[in-house]
Sequence to fold (501 residues):
Amino acid sequence: MNYLRFVITSAVLITASSLLMTSCKSKSRRGDISAKTGVRYNDPYNGGLQINRKIKESPGPGLVGIEGGTFVMGGSLNEDLAFSHDNLRRRVTVASFYIDETEVSNADWLEYLHWIAQNYPQDGKLYYDALPDSLVWRNPLSYNEPYVNFYLRHPSFQDYPVVGVSWEQANAYCQWRTDRVNEHILRERGILTDYKTLNEQQQQAGQAFNTEIYLNGQLQGAGIDGKNMPKDNKIGAQKDARRTVRMEDGILKQPYRLPTEAEWEYAALGLIGNTYDGNIETSKAYPWNGLGVRDGSRKNQGRMMANFKITGGNNMGVAGDLNDGGDITVPVTSYKPNDFGLYNMAGNVNEWVSDVYRQLSFEDFEDFNPFRGHVFMDNQYENAENRTLAKDKYGRPIKVPAKAPRKQTWEELQAAKSGDPNKTTYDYDVRGFKDEEQQALYGKTTLVNDKSRVFKGGSWNDRAYWLNPATRRYMQQNESNAMTGFRCAMTMVGNVFGPGK
Fold:
């Protein structure tokens, strides 16, 4: 009897072990085989479709992952002191995304200026257009002249937020940052020529890396390619053939950009710290808990939680026991971060967001990823047959108005090649969708047009009311002041906070 029991037990264990090994082997091979055709991926003998299952989504340098969700946009604002009624409560959902931990600092901007000077030493206009307007500090009845000369460049101010930058300049910085981050990734991995070799080659100025141009296969060859380029598995390729990186490889980062207004407000509130079992237990008026602007903890009780104008004539407190301590701006990591780990989402400087301002946007926008400001553009082709992109003198792709709201048929695409690339019947500019710009009234009865951009957050020179994340103001996209800076965001591809994470 015992012998029979032993035999049965052994048989069961052997069967279970066999099934487990088969299962593990099946799982290990599942990612290498198409679930729909059974054809093996990454096989140079059957066509060489390369599928990368090992890529793990991660933020770009300086970014923090923000777990998306639903919230009431405008819900933190209990008063409307200006009676503008421009952010009435509306429940929306914001997808997960990334955003800078801090505001962009003077040191960050000097890196940008330095790169321009190094790569385009003869292009005075490009450098001049990238310079912040330091004259924003100038005031006929205030002695601010030292800030005009020292604020941007003196090392004592290097960790302070950059100011005097327009919305247009902030967007140009985002585009530049995208290319520098991706270029650095490729050079560090040896996919592009490393920095030392590049320096020894004495690369000519003006040959800058651009992510879109690279992904289109237009940046490769001698002096460009590194030693660690991916293997080319396509049929007919030579044994040791190499290729440029593709989007499918998951190596390059998504574009940096300005956050949308909804993303910014959601990230500023940081309600994740007030959530339990899917319910928001307490609301917030600021990026911290409580209805006031002072710290309620025993250690720092009574200290200001942000850099703002406390009262008229009081920017920083009384000597000997300064309160917020900021006469103007302060370093970008000052004060406690909010529950997402973001610094200075209230006070210090206002921050540009990507949205075009309309008073009644809350009535019009979608309830998922709300945004107003689209101008849909396509790349212009230098040669449509071999899909070569046209470039400007800085090596960036030339953009032209989108031709259609959906994918065109092949015949429509061919017919469009012979026409003017800048002409289209499609309404590609939807900044004024459902709320058109009134050009005849601009400057007379309204100061709002399609170039009016939203900024949020309050600054060192604003009262506490403007620290509320739901408040909104606007400037023209080519304007700037000493109270406004910005931080960048990035779309999260996939969702690292998704099911089962």
Remarks:
- Residues 274 and 452 are 34 Å apart (CA to CA).
- The radius of gyration is 27 Å.
